[in-house]
Specification:
540 residues; 7-stranded mixed beta sheet; globular; alpha+beta; 3-stranded antiparallel beta sheet
Length: 540
């Protein structure tokens, strides 16, 4: 079997081996392929299983260059887990799509897909055809989604009365690192959304909510700034630090004399020539500053830098300025203050200025870290959530948690139907699917039963993570849901002494739950379709 390679010597006499391509491909076919795929996907799901729910554990991920990231957010964990296997990558994509579409429920969706695959494997062992299994799953998924519509509840809120929204934000945040300041973080998220929500169109543009973090201080010091926070300071230490009723001009042109663009050299051989050049530059600067001053601006924000000379002149003319402000922030500023971005000095007019109630420079701690707060903007639709935390990892994780909460509240503004959490909706759907299965003839019945078993993985994982006996808990919950016909009974993760999720106020959006079921089912169908894996094998 060694005929596949030949030994060759390069010009220095070192031997190297040439291997023919074809024999180097490994191939898995039929059931073996399905089994190995299912195994790969399940191993990803089992990693996430322990981080489901309010008592879930966090994972610490160290990237190749030593960056440490501590997270509880399914999508983040999977994204950072450099997964090799192709099928495992599908699971990563799955939680990503849940993250992009809904924002929350990224762990649950992967756990559910893992459970479905586990059930599918049992059915394959019984000799069911993979396509029949996936058809059965499809039917079951539809039954489950329809059942969610029946058990859902409506949330009533107005821009002024948001206590209901808070409960949903709290549910989302309860499994994250911010539980210590739960109420406050939920409040931040809800008020931010309320500030930028468009109630006529029932939509929220999340781009208008910016998140800034600064290390230091406690989690509780985080706050909502009704305006924009720039991680920049005012360019000259002598300029005013607080500007009331600021008129802001936003420039995207550099604050320096024009350089000859071509390869020409300017030859200066006499003092006079140098002075004329210097004078011209001075005039140019004075002219620029005068143009800004004439337009009535009281604060210049520039995308590029400026010379010290320009800086000095601005200082003499009492015109505070900020330099090196990035493109995204400039756009946000323009939206918030109603300014027009000015590309050339010649186009500056008073109409193009933006307005803000107060611009102030705030310094933090002893570290000379200064930031600009631009508040009470004219059409202040833009807000900034300003996060403080003990270290960078925590700040990143808080940002991710708040992002999840923002997404959930946004989904509620779009569609105010909710289901109850704590695994109650999964148990209810599981019962509904197994009822429906009894009415189906043929092989689909098995697949539907399997789907209903798989749905139980979520309440099961929840109770195991909370240190409760999983199987007993699940069995008693199922029995009680049937007997009391109350589909709001779920796992009592917080050990509050009641299983009624309505009184515990554990809520999830209906849309998010449905999406979880659908996405998980689709991925499982896709994995069940694959019966042949051809991959370039690794050299021994």
């Amino acid at each position: 079997g060694r005929q596949t390679m030949s030994l060759v010597f390069d010009e220095y006499g070192r031997p190297f081996i040439i291997i023919k391509e074809q024999s180097a491909k490994t191939r898995l076919k039929g059931l073996a392929a399905l089994k190995s795929n299912i195994l790969a996907a399940r191993s990803v799901a089992s990693t996430l299983r322990s981080s489901l729910g309010p008592k879930g554990m966090d994972k610490i991920l160290v990237s190749g260059d030593g960056d440490v990231c501590v997270s509880n957010d399914g999508a983040t964990i999977l994204e950072r887990m450099e997964v090799d296997n192709q099928i495992a990558k599908l699971m990563v994509e799955l939680s990503k799509s849940q993250d992009q579409e809904i924002g929350d429920g990224t762990t649950g969706v992967v756990v559910l897909a893992g459970a479905l695959l586990e059930q599918a494997e049992l059915l394959l062992d019984r000799g069911l055809h993979p396509r029949r299994i996936s058809e059965g799953f499809e039917v079951a998924c539809k039954v489950a989604c329809d059942h969610l519509d029946n058990i859902c509840d409506k949330l009533h809120f107005t821009p002024d009365e948001t206590s209901e929204l808070l409960t949903v934000a709290k549910t989302t945040l309860s499994s994250k690192i911010v539980t210590r300041a739960l109420d406050q973080m939920a409040n931040l998220a809800v008020s931010a959304i309320m500030a930028v929500a468009d109630f006529e169109r029932k939509d929220v543009n999340l781009d208008l909510i910016k998140m800034e973090g600064k290390v230091g201080g406690q989690m509780e010091d985080s706050m909502l700034v009704s305006g924009i926070v720039l991680d920049k300071d005012i360019s000259h230490p002598g300029m005013a630090k607080t500007i009331k009723d600021a008129k802001i001009c936003i420039l995207t042109c550099p604050f320096e004399p024009p350089k000859p663009k071509t390869k020409h050299n300017i030859q200066i051989d006499t003092v006079e020539k140098y002075q004329t050049l210097y004078k011209q530059e001075q005039e140019y600067f004075v002219d620029m500053v005068k143009k800004i001053k004439d337009s009535g601006a009281t604060l210049a924000i520039c995308q590029w830098g400026f010379d010290d000379e320009a800086n000095h002149l601005l200082y003499q003319n009492e015109l505070p300025a900020v330099r090196w402000v990035g493109g995204v922030e400039i756009e946000l500023l323009a939206i918030a203050t109603g300014a027009r971005i000015v590309p050339r000095f010649s186009e500056l007019t008073p109409e193009k200025l933006g307005k803000a109630g107060v611009v102030r420079e705030v310094s933090f701690g002893t570290t000379k870290d200064r930031m600009l707060f631009i508040e009470n903007c004219e059409n202040s639709k833009a807000v900034t959530i300003f996060v403080r935390g003990a270290n960078k990892m925590i700040i990143e994780e808080i940002k991710r948690s708040i992002h999840d909460a923002l997404c959930m509240v946004r989904n509620l503004v779009r569609d105010n139907r909710i289901v109850y959490g704590g695994g109650s909706s999964e148990i209810a759907c599981s019962l509904a699917v197994s009822d429906a299965a009894s009415k189906v003839t043929g092989v689909d019945q098995y697949a539907m039963r399997a789907f209903s078993d798989a749905l139980e993985a979520i309440p099961m994982a929840l109770s195991e993570n909370s240190g409760l006996p999983g199987i007993e808990n699940l069995a008693s919950l199922k029995q009680r849901q049937v007997q009391e016909k109350n589909s709001w009974l779920g796992v009592d993760c917080k050990l509050a002494g009641t299983n009624d999720m309505k009184s515990q106020k554990v809520l999830e959006t209906l849309h998010g739950k449905k999406q979880q079921f659908m996405l998980a089912t689709q991925v499982v169908k896709m994995i069940l379709k694959i019966d042949d894996v051809i991959s370039p094998s690794e050299y021994e």
